[in-house]
Amino acid sequence: xxxxxLVTDRGVDRRIYTDAAVYRDELRRIFxxxxxxxxxxxxxxxxxxxxxxxxxxxxxxxxxDDGGHLRVLINRCRHRGLTVCEAQRGTxxxxxxxxxxxxxxxxxxxxxxSHPSGYSEDFSRADYGLQPVPRVGxxxxxxxxxxxxxxxxxxxxxxxxxxxxxxxxxxxPDGAIEARRGAHKYLFDGNWKFQLENSxxxxxxxxxxxxxxxxxxxHSKVRSRVFEDNxxxxxxxxxxxxxxxxxxxxxxxxxxxxxxxxPGGEALVADLEATYGPERxxxxxxxxxxNGFNLAVFPNxxxxxxxxxxxxxxxxxxxxxxxxxxTFKGLPESLNRMRLRTHEAFFGPAGxxxxxxxxxxxxxxxxxxxxxxxxxxxxxxxxxxxxxxxVLIGDVSDETPQxxxxxxxxxLMAAPERQALAV
Amino acid sequence: xxxxxxxxxxxxxxxxxxxRDYRGWLELLAxxxxxxxxxxxxxxxxxxxxxxxxxxxxxLEDRIDRLLSGKAYAQEPPSLTTRSLSNFRCRLDDHGAxxxxxxxxxxVRAGRQSTFGGLYSHRIREVDGRLTIAHKxxxxxxxxxxxxxxxxxx
Lengths: 423, 154
Known about the structure:
The complex is a heterodimer.
Chain A: E1 11-13, H1 15-18, H2 20-31, E2 36-40, E3 49-55, E4 58-64, E5 70-74, E6 89-91, E7 94-96, E8 103-105, E9 110-112, E10 135-139, E11 142-146, H3 154-158, H4 162-170, E12 177-178, E13 184-188, H5 192-199, H6 205-208, H7 210-220, E14 234-239, E15 242-246, H8 248-251, H9 254-261, H10 265-286, E16 293-297, E17 301-304, E18 307-315, E19 318-325, E20 327-328, H11 333-346, H12 354-367, E21 375-377, E22 386-388, E23 391-395, H13 400-414
Antiparallel strand pairs in A: 1-21, 2-11, 3-4, 3-6, 4-5, 7-8, 8-9, 10-11, 12-20, 13-19, 14-15, 14-23, 15-16, 16-17, 17-18, 18-19, 22-23
Helix pairs in contact in A: 9-10
Chain B: H1 3-18, H2 22-26, E1 29-38, E2 51-55, H3 57-67, E3 80-93, E4 96-109, E5 112-127, E6 130-140
Parallel strand pairs in B: 1-6
Antiparallel strand pairs in B: 1-2, 3-4, 4-5, 5-6
Protein backbone atom coordinates (compact mmCIF):
# COMPACT_ATOMS: atom_id res chain seq x y z
CA UNK A 1 0.00 0.00 0.00
CA UNK A 2 2.84 2.32 0.88
CA UNK A 3 3.90 3.13 -2.69
CA UNK A 4 0.37 3.23 -4.08
CA UNK A 5 -0.24 6.32 -1.94
CA LEU A 6 2.33 8.23 -4.02
CA VAL A 7 -0.44 8.79 -6.57
CA THR A 8 -2.67 11.65 -5.41
CA ASP A 9 -5.83 13.25 -6.77
CA ARG A 10 -3.92 15.89 -8.68
CA GLY A 11 -0.76 14.10 -9.65
CA VAL A 12 2.06 12.01 -8.30
CA ASP A 13 4.87 12.25 -5.78
CA ARG A 14 8.35 12.78 -7.26
CA ARG A 15 9.59 9.58 -5.59
CA ILE A 16 7.80 7.41 -8.17
CA TYR A 17 10.52 8.52 -10.58
CA THR A 18 13.52 8.65 -8.27
CA ASP A 19 13.16 6.11 -5.48
CA ALA A 20 14.99 2.78 -5.90
CA ALA A 21 12.51 0.97 -3.62
CA VAL A 22 9.57 2.14 -5.72
CA TYR A 23 11.39 0.98 -8.84
CA ARG A 24 12.04 -2.50 -7.42
CA ASP A 25 8.41 -2.68 -6.37
CA GLU A 26 7.32 -1.76 -9.91
CA LEU A 27 9.44 -4.56 -11.36
CA ARG A 28 7.61 -7.06 -9.15
CA ARG A 29 4.09 -5.66 -8.97
CA ILE A 30 3.78 -4.27 -12.51
CA PHE A 31 6.31 -5.91 -14.84
CA UNK A 32 6.25 -9.11 -12.77
CA UNK A 33 2.50 -9.46 -13.02
CA UNK A 34 0.70 -7.74 -15.85
CA UNK A 35 0.89 -8.47 -19.60
CA UNK A 36 4.09 -7.00 -21.01
CA UNK A 37 4.75 -6.53 -24.72
CA UNK A 38 7.79 -8.53 -25.91
CA UNK A 39 7.89 -8.70 -29.73
CA UNK A 40 5.94 -8.69 -32.95
CA UNK A 41 5.28 -12.02 -34.67
CA UNK A 42 6.92 -10.81 -37.89
CA UNK A 43 10.23 -10.61 -36.00
CA UNK A 44 10.18 -14.35 -35.30
CA UNK A 45 8.70 -15.92 -38.43
CA UNK A 46 10.87 -18.90 -39.36
CA UNK A 47 11.67 -21.88 -37.11
CA UNK A 48 14.68 -21.00 -34.93
CA UNK A 49 14.22 -17.26 -35.40
CA UNK A 50 14.54 -15.43 -32.09
CA UNK A 51 14.75 -12.05 -30.45
CA UNK A 52 16.02 -11.25 -26.95
CA UNK A 53 14.34 -8.67 -24.77
CA UNK A 54 13.35 -8.05 -21.16
CA UNK A 55 10.22 -8.22 -19.05
CA UNK A 56 11.10 -5.57 -16.50
CA UNK A 57 14.70 -6.59 -15.90
CA UNK A 58 14.08 -10.31 -16.52
CA UNK A 59 15.95 -11.34 -19.68
CA UNK A 60 13.84 -13.41 -22.06
CA UNK A 61 14.14 -15.03 -25.46
CA UNK A 62 11.18 -14.82 -27.82
CA UNK A 63 11.63 -17.68 -30.25
CA UNK A 64 9.77 -19.62 -32.94
CA ASP A 65 10.70 -23.19 -32.03
CA ASP A 66 11.50 -26.00 -34.46
CA GLY A 67 7.85 -27.01 -34.49
CA GLY A 68 6.73 -23.48 -35.37
CA HIS A 69 5.38 -22.69 -31.88
CA LEU A 70 5.99 -19.35 -30.30
CA ARG A 71 7.94 -19.54 -27.01
CA VAL A 72 8.95 -16.94 -24.48
CA LEU A 73 11.75 -18.43 -22.36
CA ILE A 74 13.63 -16.95 -19.45
CA ASN A 75 17.15 -16.34 -20.75
CA ARG A 76 18.93 -17.97 -17.84
CA CYS A 77 20.80 -21.28 -17.73
CA ARG A 78 19.25 -23.68 -15.23
CA HIS A 79 22.70 -24.73 -14.05
CA ARG A 80 24.56 -21.62 -12.84
CA GLY A 81 22.39 -18.83 -14.11
CA LEU A 82 24.13 -17.34 -17.15
CA THR A 83 22.23 -15.94 -20.07
CA VAL A 84 22.26 -18.57 -22.81
CA CYS A 85 21.68 -16.13 -25.66
CA GLU A 86 23.46 -12.79 -26.02
CA ALA A 87 22.50 -11.91 -29.59
CA GLN A 88 19.78 -9.28 -30.03
CA ARG A 89 18.21 -11.35 -32.80
CA GLY A 90 19.07 -14.18 -35.13
CA THR A 91 18.26 -17.74 -36.13
CA UNK A 92 19.56 -20.76 -34.25
CA UNK A 93 19.13 -24.49 -33.81
CA UNK A 94 19.93 -24.40 -30.09
CA UNK A 95 20.90 -22.19 -27.14
CA UNK A 96 24.15 -23.24 -25.50
CA UNK A 97 25.50 -21.91 -22.23
CA UNK A 98 29.18 -20.94 -22.58
CA UNK A 99 30.04 -21.90 -18.98
CA UNK A 100 29.67 -25.71 -18.97
CA UNK A 101 28.03 -26.35 -22.29
CA UNK A 102 24.47 -27.07 -21.22
CA UNK A 103 22.42 -26.99 -24.40
CA UNK A 104 18.74 -26.21 -24.90
CA UNK A 105 16.51 -26.72 -27.92
CA UNK A 106 14.55 -23.80 -29.39
CA UNK A 107 11.56 -24.98 -27.36
CA UNK A 108 13.66 -24.68 -24.20
CA UNK A 109 14.19 -28.39 -23.53
CA UNK A 110 17.53 -29.32 -21.98
CA UNK A 111 18.99 -31.52 -24.69
CA UNK A 112 22.61 -31.73 -23.69
CA UNK A 113 24.57 -31.85 -20.42
CA SER A 114 28.30 -32.29 -20.81
CA HIS A 115 29.88 -35.13 -18.77
CA PRO A 116 26.46 -36.35 -17.56
CA SER A 117 27.96 -39.06 -15.30
CA GLY A 118 28.57 -36.26 -12.78
CA TYR A 119 24.87 -36.25 -11.95
CA SER A 120 23.09 -39.00 -10.04
CA GLU A 121 20.49 -41.28 -11.60
CA ASP A 122 17.53 -39.29 -10.28
CA PHE A 123 18.67 -36.20 -12.18
CA SER A 124 16.19 -35.70 -15.00
CA ARG A 125 16.93 -33.32 -17.84
CA ALA A 126 13.19 -32.83 -18.20
CA ASP A 127 13.25 -30.89 -14.93
CA TYR A 128 15.85 -28.43 -16.18
CA GLY A 129 14.57 -26.90 -19.38
CA LEU A 130 14.73 -23.13 -19.80
CA GLN A 131 11.97 -21.72 -17.64
CA PRO A 132 9.05 -20.70 -19.89
CA VAL A 133 7.30 -17.45 -19.07
CA PRO A 134 4.00 -18.78 -17.65
CA ARG A 135 1.64 -16.98 -19.98
CA VAL A 136 2.11 -15.92 -23.60
CA GLY A 137 -0.61 -14.34 -25.72
CA UNK A 138 -0.82 -12.69 -29.09
CA UNK A 139 -3.21 -10.14 -30.45
CA UNK A 140 -3.06 -9.20 -34.14
CA UNK A 141 0.59 -10.26 -34.22
CA UNK A 142 1.58 -8.36 -31.08
CA UNK A 143 3.15 -10.81 -28.62
CA UNK A 144 2.65 -10.24 -24.91
CA UNK A 145 3.88 -12.30 -21.97
CA UNK A 146 3.11 -12.37 -18.27
CA UNK A 147 5.40 -13.62 -15.52
CA UNK A 148 2.31 -14.37 -13.42
CA UNK A 149 0.75 -17.83 -13.86
CA UNK A 150 -2.71 -16.43 -13.15
CA UNK A 151 -4.51 -13.22 -13.88
CA UNK A 152 -6.76 -11.53 -16.38
CA UNK A 153 -6.64 -12.71 -19.97
CA UNK A 154 -4.76 -10.73 -22.60
CA UNK A 155 -8.07 -9.65 -24.15
CA UNK A 156 -9.32 -8.43 -20.78
CA UNK A 157 -6.06 -6.57 -20.24
CA UNK A 158 -6.10 -4.91 -23.68
CA UNK A 159 -9.74 -3.89 -23.34
CA UNK A 160 -10.23 -0.45 -24.88
CA UNK A 161 -6.76 -0.50 -26.48
CA UNK A 162 -7.69 -3.41 -28.77
CA UNK A 163 -9.61 -1.33 -31.35
CA UNK A 164 -6.52 0.85 -31.77
CA UNK A 165 -4.30 -2.20 -32.31
CA UNK A 166 -6.90 -3.32 -34.88
CA UNK A 167 -6.82 0.03 -36.66
CA UNK A 168 -3.01 -0.04 -36.73
CA UNK A 169 -3.09 -3.39 -38.57
CA UNK A 170 -6.22 -2.82 -40.66
CA UNK A 171 -4.58 0.16 -42.37
CA UNK A 172 -2.54 -2.46 -44.29
CA PRO A 173 -4.12 -3.78 -47.50
CA ASP A 174 -4.40 -7.31 -46.12
CA GLY A 175 -4.44 -6.36 -42.46
CA ALA A 176 -0.87 -7.44 -41.75
CA ILE A 177 2.05 -5.33 -40.64
CA GLU A 178 5.71 -6.32 -40.46
CA ALA A 179 8.53 -5.04 -38.28
CA ARG A 180 11.59 -6.37 -40.05
CA ARG A 181 13.33 -3.29 -41.45
CA GLY A 182 15.44 -2.42 -38.41
CA ALA A 183 15.07 -0.85 -34.97
CA HIS A 184 16.20 2.47 -33.55
CA LYS A 185 17.46 2.17 -29.99
CA TYR A 186 18.10 4.93 -27.53
CA LEU A 187 18.95 5.28 -23.87
CA PHE A 188 18.14 8.11 -21.52
CA ASP A 189 19.03 8.99 -17.96
CA GLY A 190 15.48 9.12 -16.73
CA ASN A 191 12.64 7.00 -15.40
CA TRP A 192 10.76 4.70 -17.78
CA LYS A 193 7.42 6.32 -17.02
CA PHE A 194 8.54 9.60 -18.63
CA GLN A 195 8.53 7.88 -22.02
CA LEU A 196 5.11 6.31 -21.50
CA GLU A 197 3.58 9.60 -20.31
CA ASN A 198 5.20 11.60 -23.09
CA SER A 199 4.05 9.24 -25.85
CA UNK A 200 0.45 10.31 -25.24
CA UNK A 201 1.11 13.89 -24.10
CA UNK A 202 -0.70 16.27 -26.43
CA UNK A 203 0.37 19.30 -24.43
CA UNK A 204 4.08 19.20 -25.36
CA UNK A 205 4.34 18.90 -29.18
CA UNK A 206 3.46 22.52 -29.75
CA UNK A 207 6.42 23.55 -27.57
CA UNK A 208 9.02 20.79 -27.65
CA UNK A 209 8.59 20.05 -31.36
CA UNK A 210 8.16 23.62 -32.59
CA UNK A 211 11.40 23.31 -34.59
CA UNK A 212 10.03 20.26 -36.40
CA UNK A 213 6.66 21.85 -37.16
CA UNK A 214 8.45 24.96 -38.44
CA UNK A 215 10.30 22.84 -41.01
CA UNK A 216 7.16 20.95 -41.94
CA UNK A 217 5.24 24.17 -42.42
CA UNK A 218 8.00 25.67 -44.55
CA HIS A 219 7.73 22.76 -46.99
CA SER A 220 3.98 22.18 -46.97
CA LYS A 221 2.90 25.82 -46.54
CA VAL A 222 0.25 24.46 -44.20
CA ARG A 223 0.20 25.08 -40.48
CA SER A 224 -0.86 22.05 -38.44
CA ARG A 225 -3.67 22.84 -36.01
CA VAL A 226 -3.77 19.40 -34.42
CA PHE A 227 -2.19 20.46 -31.13
CA GLU A 228 -3.74 23.90 -30.82
CA ASP A 229 -6.16 24.70 -28.05
CA ASN A 230 -9.30 24.45 -30.18
CA UNK A 231 -8.23 21.19 -31.89
CA UNK A 232 -10.86 18.55 -32.53
CA UNK A 233 -8.25 15.91 -31.70
CA UNK A 234 -8.61 14.60 -28.17
CA UNK A 235 -7.02 12.50 -25.42
CA UNK A 236 -8.47 9.30 -24.02
CA UNK A 237 -8.46 7.15 -20.93
CA UNK A 238 -9.12 3.71 -22.46
CA UNK A 239 -9.22 1.88 -19.14
CA UNK A 240 -6.69 -0.57 -17.60
CA UNK A 241 -3.98 2.09 -17.74
CA UNK A 242 -4.09 2.50 -21.52
CA UNK A 243 -4.34 5.95 -23.07
CA UNK A 244 -4.36 7.67 -26.42
CA UNK A 245 -4.21 10.91 -28.29
CA UNK A 246 -6.72 10.50 -31.07
CA UNK A 247 -6.13 12.93 -33.92
CA UNK A 248 -8.01 10.99 -36.56
CA UNK A 249 -10.88 13.45 -36.81
CA UNK A 250 -8.37 16.25 -37.39
CA UNK A 251 -6.23 14.46 -39.97
CA UNK A 252 -8.48 14.70 -43.04
CA UNK A 253 -6.55 14.11 -46.26
CA UNK A 254 -3.26 15.39 -44.83
CA UNK A 255 -1.03 12.53 -45.98
CA UNK A 256 -2.94 11.78 -49.18
CA UNK A 257 -2.42 15.38 -50.23
CA UNK A 258 1.24 15.32 -49.23
CA UNK A 259 1.93 12.27 -51.38
CA UNK A 260 -0.03 13.59 -54.34
CA UNK A 261 1.80 16.91 -54.51
CA UNK A 262 5.25 15.26 -54.14
CA PRO A 263 7.35 14.71 -57.31
CA GLY A 264 5.87 11.73 -59.17
CA GLY A 265 2.92 11.74 -56.79
CA GLU A 266 0.12 12.01 -59.38
CA ALA A 267 1.48 8.98 -61.27
CA LEU A 268 1.81 7.00 -58.07
CA VAL A 269 -1.77 7.79 -57.10
CA ALA A 270 -2.99 6.73 -60.57
CA ASP A 271 -1.11 3.42 -60.27
CA LEU A 272 -2.59 2.71 -56.86
CA GLU A 273 -6.10 3.63 -57.95
CA ALA A 274 -5.81 1.09 -60.77
CA THR A 275 -5.15 -1.60 -58.14
CA TYR A 276 -7.17 -0.50 -55.12
CA GLY A 277 -9.74 1.95 -56.46
CA PRO A 278 -9.99 5.63 -55.44
CA GLU A 279 -11.41 5.20 -51.91
CA ARG A 280 -8.96 2.52 -50.75
CA UNK A 281 -6.08 4.47 -52.32
CA UNK A 282 -7.10 7.54 -50.38
CA UNK A 283 -7.31 5.62 -47.09
CA UNK A 284 -4.02 3.81 -47.77
CA UNK A 285 -2.19 7.05 -48.40
CA UNK A 286 -3.86 8.74 -45.45
CA UNK A 287 -2.25 6.17 -43.17
CA UNK A 288 1.07 6.04 -44.99
CA UNK A 289 2.85 7.96 -42.23
CA UNK A 290 0.64 6.82 -39.40
CA ASN A 291 -2.89 6.19 -38.29
CA GLY A 292 -3.47 9.54 -36.68
CA PHE A 293 -3.29 8.36 -33.10
CA ASN A 294 -0.73 7.81 -30.35
CA LEU A 295 -1.52 4.78 -28.24
CA ALA A 296 0.10 3.79 -24.95
CA VAL A 297 -0.61 0.22 -23.87
CA PHE A 298 0.20 -0.17 -20.18
CA PRO A 299 2.98 -0.63 -19.20
CA ASN A 300 5.50 -0.70 -22.06
CA UNK A 301 4.04 -0.60 -25.58
CA UNK A 302 3.44 2.50 -27.66
CA UNK A 303 2.13 2.88 -31.21
CA UNK A 304 2.87 6.20 -32.90
CA UNK A 305 2.99 6.98 -36.59
CA UNK A 306 4.21 3.82 -38.29
CA UNK A 307 6.13 2.58 -35.29
CA UNK A 308 6.03 0.03 -32.51
CA UNK A 309 7.85 1.52 -29.51
CA UNK A 310 8.94 -0.65 -26.60
CA UNK A 311 9.94 0.83 -23.24
CA UNK A 312 12.46 -1.13 -21.16
CA UNK A 313 13.33 0.02 -17.66
CA UNK A 314 16.97 -0.53 -16.67
CA UNK A 315 17.23 1.44 -13.42
CA UNK A 316 15.13 4.10 -11.64
CA UNK A 317 16.98 6.72 -13.71
CA UNK A 318 17.86 4.81 -16.87
CA UNK A 319 15.61 3.53 -19.67
CA UNK A 320 16.16 1.81 -22.99
CA UNK A 321 13.71 2.40 -25.81
CA UNK A 322 13.43 0.31 -28.94
CA UNK A 323 11.54 1.70 -31.89
CA UNK A 324 10.54 -0.41 -34.89
CA UNK A 325 8.90 1.18 -37.93
CA UNK A 326 6.42 -1.15 -39.55
CA THR A 327 5.74 -1.83 -43.20
CA PHE A 328 2.53 -3.10 -44.73
CA LYS A 329 2.44 -6.55 -46.24
CA GLY A 330 1.18 -6.32 -49.80
CA LEU A 331 1.91 -2.61 -50.20
CA PRO A 332 4.10 -1.47 -53.13
CA GLU A 333 7.70 -1.24 -51.94
CA SER A 334 7.88 2.45 -52.85
CA LEU A 335 5.15 3.21 -50.31
CA ASN A 336 6.76 1.08 -47.62
CA ARG A 337 9.96 3.02 -48.19
CA MET A 338 7.98 6.20 -47.78
CA ARG A 339 6.91 4.89 -44.37
CA LEU A 340 10.54 4.30 -43.40
CA ARG A 341 11.64 7.76 -44.57
CA THR A 342 8.77 9.48 -42.78
CA HIS A 343 9.72 7.66 -39.61
CA GLU A 344 13.42 8.59 -39.90
CA ALA A 345 12.47 12.26 -40.24
CA PHE A 346 11.25 12.53 -36.65
CA PHE A 347 12.38 9.45 -34.73
CA GLY A 348 15.59 7.70 -33.79
CA PRO A 349 18.64 9.10 -31.98
CA ALA A 350 19.33 11.57 -34.82
CA GLY A 351 15.73 12.42 -35.75
CA UNK A 352 14.19 15.90 -35.73
CA UNK A 353 11.82 15.18 -32.86
CA UNK A 354 12.40 12.24 -30.54
CA UNK A 355 15.84 13.42 -29.27
CA UNK A 356 14.22 16.58 -27.96
CA UNK A 357 11.81 14.45 -25.91
CA UNK A 358 14.82 12.61 -24.53
CA UNK A 359 16.28 15.94 -23.41
CA UNK A 360 12.98 16.58 -21.62
CA UNK A 361 13.37 13.28 -19.73
CA UNK A 362 16.97 14.06 -18.77
CA UNK A 363 15.99 17.45 -17.36
CA UNK A 364 12.95 16.02 -15.59
CA UNK A 365 15.08 13.46 -13.77
CA UNK A 366 17.51 16.19 -12.73
CA UNK A 367 14.78 18.56 -11.57
CA UNK A 368 13.00 15.88 -9.58
CA UNK A 369 16.11 15.43 -7.44
CA UNK A 370 14.67 18.37 -5.46
CA UNK A 371 13.29 16.59 -2.39
CA UNK A 372 11.58 19.69 -1.02
CA UNK A 373 9.13 19.95 -3.91
CA UNK A 374 7.20 16.68 -3.93
CA UNK A 375 4.24 17.12 -6.23
CA UNK A 376 4.27 16.46 -9.97
CA UNK A 377 1.07 18.00 -11.31
CA UNK A 378 -1.10 15.96 -13.68
CA UNK A 379 -4.39 17.80 -13.25
CA UNK A 380 -4.67 19.50 -16.62
CA UNK A 381 -8.20 19.16 -17.98
CA UNK A 382 -9.52 17.29 -14.95
CA UNK A 383 -12.50 19.67 -14.78
CA UNK A 384 -13.54 19.19 -18.39
CA UNK A 385 -13.25 15.43 -18.94
CA UNK A 386 -16.32 13.75 -20.38
CA UNK A 387 -17.40 10.12 -20.33
CA UNK A 388 -18.46 8.54 -23.62
CA UNK A 389 -19.39 4.92 -22.99
CA UNK A 390 -16.37 3.16 -21.53
CA VAL A 391 -13.97 5.92 -22.58
CA LEU A 392 -13.04 9.07 -20.67
CA ILE A 393 -12.23 11.89 -23.07
CA GLY A 394 -10.18 15.04 -22.57
CA ASP A 395 -9.06 17.87 -24.83
CA VAL A 396 -5.95 17.27 -26.93
CA SER A 397 -3.63 18.92 -24.42
CA ASP A 398 -5.21 17.39 -21.31
CA GLU A 399 -3.45 14.93 -19.02
CA THR A 400 -6.25 12.38 -19.25
CA PRO A 401 -3.99 9.55 -20.55
CA GLN A 402 -1.42 10.17 -17.82
CA UNK A 403 -4.12 9.99 -15.14
CA UNK A 404 -5.40 6.79 -16.78
CA UNK A 405 -1.93 5.34 -16.50
CA UNK A 406 -1.56 6.21 -12.80
CA UNK A 407 -4.98 4.82 -11.90
CA UNK A 408 -3.75 1.44 -13.07
CA UNK A 409 -0.33 1.98 -11.52
CA UNK A 410 -1.92 2.67 -8.15
CA UNK A 411 -4.15 -0.42 -8.36
CA LEU A 412 -1.24 -2.72 -9.16
CA MET A 413 1.06 -1.19 -6.57
CA ALA A 414 -1.62 -1.67 -3.91
CA ALA A 415 -2.38 -5.29 -4.79
CA PRO A 416 -0.57 -8.09 -2.95
CA GLU A 417 2.83 -8.99 -4.29
CA ARG A 418 3.15 -12.05 -6.50
CA GLN A 419 5.31 -14.89 -5.22
CA ALA A 420 8.34 -15.87 -7.31
CA LEU A 421 7.68 -18.69 -9.76
CA ALA A 422 7.91 -22.01 -7.94
CA VAL A 423 10.90 -23.36 -9.85
CA UNK B 1 44.76 16.47 -57.87
CA UNK B 2 46.85 14.37 -55.55
CA UNK B 3 45.69 12.17 -52.70
CA UNK B 4 46.99 14.65 -50.19
CA UNK B 5 44.74 17.39 -51.61
CA UNK B 6 41.74 15.18 -50.91
CA UNK B 7 42.97 14.40 -47.42
CA UNK B 8 43.46 18.12 -46.73
CA UNK B 9 39.89 18.71 -47.89
CA UNK B 10 38.51 16.11 -45.50
CA UNK B 11 40.57 17.59 -42.65
CA UNK B 12 38.98 20.95 -43.48
CA UNK B 13 35.54 19.36 -43.25
CA UNK B 14 36.40 17.84 -39.85
CA UNK B 15 37.67 21.22 -38.65
CA UNK B 16 34.44 22.98 -39.64
CA UNK B 17 32.32 20.35 -37.90
CA UNK B 18 34.37 20.49 -34.69
CA UNK B 19 34.19 24.31 -34.82
CA ARG B 20 30.40 23.97 -35.19
CA ASP B 21 30.67 26.02 -38.37
CA TYR B 22 27.64 24.25 -39.81
CA ARG B 23 26.91 26.86 -42.48
CA GLY B 24 30.54 26.57 -43.57
CA TRP B 25 30.13 22.80 -43.65
CA LEU B 26 27.12 23.03 -45.98
CA GLU B 27 29.32 24.97 -48.42
CA LEU B 28 31.48 21.87 -48.84
CA LEU B 29 28.55 19.70 -49.92
CA ALA B 30 27.37 19.03 -53.47
CA UNK B 31 23.77 19.91 -54.42
CA UNK B 32 23.07 16.17 -54.74
CA UNK B 33 24.86 15.20 -51.50
CA UNK B 34 23.75 12.05 -49.70
CA UNK B 35 24.69 11.84 -46.02
CA UNK B 36 24.17 8.32 -44.74
CA UNK B 37 24.69 6.77 -41.31
CA UNK B 38 23.66 3.08 -41.60
CA UNK B 39 21.98 1.30 -38.73
CA UNK B 40 23.73 -2.02 -39.07
CA UNK B 41 27.07 -3.49 -40.16
CA UNK B 42 27.33 -4.34 -43.82
CA UNK B 43 24.08 -2.63 -44.78
CA UNK B 44 24.31 -2.58 -48.58
CA UNK B 45 22.01 0.36 -49.31
CA UNK B 46 19.82 2.81 -47.43
CA UNK B 47 16.49 2.65 -49.29
CA UNK B 48 14.95 -0.62 -48.14
CA UNK B 49 15.94 -0.48 -44.47
CA UNK B 50 15.82 1.82 -41.51
CA UNK B 51 18.83 4.14 -41.14
CA UNK B 52 20.19 6.30 -38.36
CA UNK B 53 20.49 9.15 -40.87
CA UNK B 54 19.69 9.20 -44.58
CA UNK B 55 19.64 12.81 -45.74
CA UNK B 56 19.58 14.56 -49.06
CA UNK B 57 20.62 18.21 -49.43
CA UNK B 58 17.20 19.58 -48.48
CA UNK B 59 17.00 17.48 -45.35
CA LEU B 60 20.57 18.35 -44.38
CA GLU B 61 19.78 22.04 -44.70
CA ASP B 62 16.67 21.45 -42.57
CA ARG B 63 18.86 19.60 -40.07
CA ILE B 64 21.31 22.49 -39.81
CA ASP B 65 18.53 25.11 -39.65
CA ARG B 66 16.99 23.16 -36.80
CA LEU B 67 20.28 22.79 -34.93
CA LEU B 68 20.85 26.53 -35.19
CA SER B 69 17.25 27.48 -34.35
CA GLY B 70 17.75 27.50 -30.59
CA LYS B 71 14.73 25.19 -30.33
CA ALA B 72 16.48 21.87 -30.94
CA TYR B 73 16.65 21.04 -27.24
CA ALA B 74 18.76 17.92 -27.77
CA GLN B 75 21.48 20.38 -28.77
CA GLU B 76 20.79 22.92 -26.00
CA PRO B 77 23.48 22.93 -24.68
CA PRO B 78 25.28 21.86 -27.86
CA SER B 79 27.59 18.89 -28.18
CA LEU B 80 31.27 19.86 -28.13
CA THR B 81 33.28 17.55 -30.34
CA THR B 82 36.83 16.84 -31.36
CA ARG B 83 37.73 14.21 -33.90
CA SER B 84 40.90 12.67 -35.19
CA LEU B 85 41.15 11.08 -38.65
CA SER B 86 43.69 8.55 -39.87
CA ASN B 87 44.33 5.49 -42.06
CA PHE B 88 43.45 7.35 -45.25
CA ARG B 89 42.93 5.37 -48.42
CA CYS B 90 42.33 7.31 -51.58
CA ARG B 91 41.12 5.91 -54.89
CA LEU B 92 41.32 8.50 -57.66
CA ASP B 93 39.17 8.40 -60.76
CA ASP B 94 38.10 10.73 -63.57
CA HIS B 95 35.54 12.59 -61.45
CA GLY B 96 37.44 12.91 -58.22
CA ALA B 97 38.11 10.35 -55.52
CA UNK B 98 36.64 7.90 -53.08
CA UNK B 99 38.40 8.48 -49.77
CA UNK B 100 38.02 6.27 -46.73
CA UNK B 101 39.42 7.10 -43.31
CA UNK B 102 39.11 5.96 -39.71
CA UNK B 103 37.92 8.42 -37.11
CA UNK B 104 37.77 8.70 -33.34
CA UNK B 105 35.42 11.35 -32.01
CA UNK B 106 35.00 12.62 -28.45
CA UNK B 107 31.70 14.31 -27.69
CA VAL B 108 30.87 16.18 -24.51
CA ARG B 109 27.39 17.39 -23.71
CA ALA B 110 25.56 18.19 -20.50
CA GLY B 111 28.13 16.47 -18.30
CA ARG B 112 28.43 13.29 -20.34
CA GLN B 113 31.51 12.39 -22.38
CA SER B 114 30.99 9.87 -25.19
CA THR B 115 33.39 8.29 -27.62
CA PHE B 116 32.44 7.43 -31.18
CA GLY B 117 34.51 5.81 -33.84
CA GLY B 118 34.20 4.27 -37.24
CA LEU B 119 34.83 4.49 -40.93
CA TYR B 120 34.22 7.54 -43.09
CA SER B 121 33.70 7.06 -46.83
CA HIS B 122 33.74 10.33 -48.75
CA ARG B 123 32.89 10.52 -52.41
CA ILE B 124 34.67 13.70 -53.45
CA ARG B 125 33.87 15.34 -56.76
CA GLU B 126 36.05 17.86 -58.48
CA VAL B 127 34.22 20.55 -60.45
CA ASP B 128 36.31 23.33 -62.04
CA GLY B 129 39.17 22.72 -59.64
CA ARG B 130 36.86 22.93 -56.62
CA LEU B 131 36.18 19.91 -54.38
CA THR B 132 32.73 19.05 -53.05
CA ILE B 133 31.41 16.13 -51.02
CA ALA B 134 28.94 14.17 -53.16
CA HIS B 135 28.41 11.30 -50.74
CA LYS B 136 29.37 10.80 -47.11
CA UNK B 137 28.84 7.51 -45.34
CA UNK B 138 29.58 7.12 -41.64
CA UNK B 139 29.83 3.54 -40.42
CA UNK B 140 29.85 3.70 -36.64
CA UNK B 141 31.40 0.77 -34.80
CA UNK B 142 28.52 0.98 -32.31
CA UNK B 143 25.76 1.48 -34.91
CA UNK B 144 23.72 -1.38 -33.47
CA UNK B 145 23.99 -0.26 -29.85
CA UNK B 146 21.58 2.17 -28.20
CA UNK B 147 22.54 5.86 -28.35
CA UNK B 148 21.96 8.69 -25.93
CA UNK B 149 22.08 11.46 -28.51
CA UNK B 150 23.28 11.62 -32.10
CA UNK B 151 21.90 15.02 -33.04
CA UNK B 152 25.32 16.59 -33.70
CA UNK B 153 26.97 16.04 -37.09
CA UNK B 154 29.30 13.05 -37.29
